[in-house]
């Protein structure tokens, strides 16, 4: 099931997409919940799959609504750094991770996630704004000390995340937290696809375009740390709550890796897309 959050009369409503590409409100299907975190707490993907759309339910054209982020993270987003070989290779001039022995994890503060169509703000103190298309993983139940084999049952669904980064802040402070955590730097969307809809999460094309120019073009099969391994490792000694959002790293092709770098500027349109999930589009303000 593809789940969208739309803005309607000043409130947010969860909808699913029917077979014709139209949106139907979940409340019309018997699942009247306040937000995505409440839905995750109450229903599994399998239970959602058993819901039926009534014949008389209103159908809403996707192009007629304002899309919100499909989930608002309850805590910081957990991120994987340099999780694709080509991204490691293109950024060795900044920091060399070619011989790293373990996965790089960091967190990204999100006061409020942006949705598809929202503006990425410009800040006068940021002179090197960058994009990073990433696969987002949303957990459907709280877990701790789980195995890789059990990790699959903990996943509610998947989304697209643009890990927007202020490179000058990222490297000035010698860590990545501030440069990736400014307001408006976490667009998520356009939807969440429940885990049962994706046959193999490690075989999806992932791309990013800037003003129509293809910058990133890779496949989730090229992740160094696959999704299930990351979930299992993160859970060792650390409780991961239902609704936890994990961003699994970006492939090569970011502005930082270009020679010379071509950073984002006001008016640029960024399209992050993952096969089977959808396209997240934002414009720099």
TrEMBL record:
Gene Ontology MF: a single term: isomerase activity
A single GO BP: carboxylic acid metabolic process
Domain Fumarylacetoacetase-like C-terminal: 77-284
InterPro entries: FAH, Fumarylacetoacetase-like_C, Fumarylacetoacetase_C_sf
Assigned keywords, A-Z: Metal-binding
Gene3D superfamilies with a match to the protein in the record: Fumarylacetoacetase-like, C-terminal domain (3.90.850.10)
Pfam families cross-referenced by the UniProt entry: FAA_hydrolase
Domain of life: Bacteria
Family (UniProt): Belongs to the FAH family.
Protein name: FAH family protein
